[in-house]
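Standup notes, protein team

Yesterday: finished cleaning the Catellicoccus marimammalium M35/04/3 set.
Today: Transcription termination/antitermination protein NusG structure.
Blockers: none.

Input for Transcription termination/antitermination protein NusG:
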Amino acid sequence: METFEKQWYVLHTYSGYENKVKENLLSRAQSMGMEEYIFRVCVPEEEERGITKTGKEKVTTHKIFPGYVLVEMVMTDESWYIVRNTPGVTGFVGSHGAGSKPAPLLPEEVDTILNEMDQSVTHERPFAIGDKVRIISGSFEGFTGEIKDFNDEEHSVYLLADMGNTNCEIEVGSNEIEQL
């Protein structure tokens, strides 16, 4: 029995070929006139931003589910055939073999995955290590300092603050400082 509504399915691929499968699948959908059946192809990834030991910003991308690709499609005999015979696709997750069609993801599962991608582990920082800043609120208001490190979990920064005759390392909220 064919369903004629678009739903999300999970494809199993060769690990490391997820992006190639995405390209191949979108290309095949276009060349075979299946754009009305195969809509979106998604490789769930997240970006992680960090600071290297030398103080440079580093961005790395990680696949959330290595070896898997999501596809939003209308499951028909033809679309199913095209997807499962795309180079790099080893099969559908949730298919019981022997030509059976797979079960789609539940809407809440799709929402969780897509939201996780949108809210990836990124921390946009308006400051960098070495920046000179002024503390604009809190108990150290009015002092200036230089950013030495970040505490992303606490949304704070470590400063070497100029306290008159001495420099002290302090931690303040990232919303308590402004660039000089």
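Follow-up from PR in the comments: Confidence is low (pLDDT under 50) at residues 119-123.
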